[in-house]
Amino acid sequence: MRIGRKNFDLKQEVYVMGILNVTPDSFSDGGSYNNMDAALAHAQTMIKEGAHIIDVGGESTRPGYTMLTDEEEILRVVPIIEELKRRFDIPISIDTYKSRVAKAAIEAGADLVNDIWGLKYDQKMAAVIGQAKVPCCLMHNRNMPFEDGGKSEQEVFMKEVLADLEKTLQIAKKAGIEEDKIILDPGIGFGKTYQMNLQVMNHLDRLLELGYPILLGASRKSMIGLTLDLPVDKRLEGTLVTTVLGVLKGCSFVRVHDVKENIRAIKMTKAILMS
After folding, report:
1. Of the candidates 133, 65, 51, which has an alpha carbon nearest to the alpha carbon of residue 96?
2. What is the 3-state secondary structure (H, E, C) of the chain?
3. Would you give per-residue pLDDT tens digits along the chain (275 residues)?
């Protein structure tokens, strides 16, 4: 897969997407990087630590978040993206589910669209991505409950996740998004209970049945906090476990806050697997 000016070997490597939240209210680091100098300094740190992609988000999607207008979100992310592209040679992702924001971000230089609603929130999003011919990460999400269809709840749940993603893929194909430009994200922490999040982690390899590379975004999520009874700033070890499991289950990307530590965990895991 080619993202921006970089080629990604998805059969041999696992790549790290560093999180850059330019928001005052993100669940983990809200307010830390919501001005230009702080955002650029943090991006530079992540790049030095080995990040392969920087994911810029202008609206928090934590539980109970406040939705921004398109204009507010554009004003937050576009100047950051423009400056990142001017200063650094690294692919930039825009974390948004709004087509106008995605379009403005792409025009500012964004190389990938990361949509937490898998093209299902904004009906124009798929067309924007397809016309721009940029890669996209399409996440599993839903606001309807999962149902037990009479079999084991676990099996039914995973089948529903795959069916939801199949619908996302149909939207993508209809809009002309090329198959080699699609990444799928299982959506840890989105539209799922604690137990469902654990099940998705345990069965990440099932997503490979759909035939697309997988991005895992479990960094510092509530699943880790609930399991370990730890606040958001104490969840590094739990995050590293999810990253290692992601490598073992065949994920091609991990989206994380702590770049250096996760890259070390990936490197160690791959060394063992390749021995």
Report:
1. 65
2. CEECCEECCCCCCCEEEEEEECCCCCCCCCCCCCCHHHHHHHHHHHHHCCCCEEEEECCCCCCCCCCCCHHHHHHHHHHHHHHHHHHCCCCEEEECCCHHHHHHHHHHCCCEEEECCCCCCCCCHHHHHHHHCCCEEEECCCCCCCCCCCCCHHHHHHHHHHHHHHHHHHHHHHCCCCHHHEEEECCCCCCCCHHHHHHHHHCHHHHHHHCCCEEECCCCCHHHHHHHCCCHHHCHHHHHHHHHHHHHCCCCEEEECCHHHHHHHHHHHHHHHCC
3. 999 999 999 999 999 999 999 987 544 544 455 689 999 999 999 999 999 999 999 998 776 667 899 999 999 999 999 999 999 999 999 999 999 999 999 999 999 999 999 999 999 999 999 999 999 999 999 977 776 544 456 778 999 999 999 999 999 999 999 999 999 999 999 999 999 999 999 999 999 999 999 999 999 999 999 999 999 999 999 999 999 999 999 999 999 999 999 999 999 999 999 99
Task: Report CA torsion sign: 82, 66, 259, 180.
Answer: negative
Query: With left for phi above 0 and alpha for psi between -120 and 50, is residue 211 left, alpha or beta?
Result: left
Sheet of 15-21, strands arranged across: 182-185, 136-139, 112-115, 92-95, 53-57, 15-21, 253-256, 215-216
Active-site annotation, residues? 221, 255
Longest dimension (CA), the chain: 55
Q: Are 204 and 253 in contact, with CB atoms under 8 Å apart?
A: no
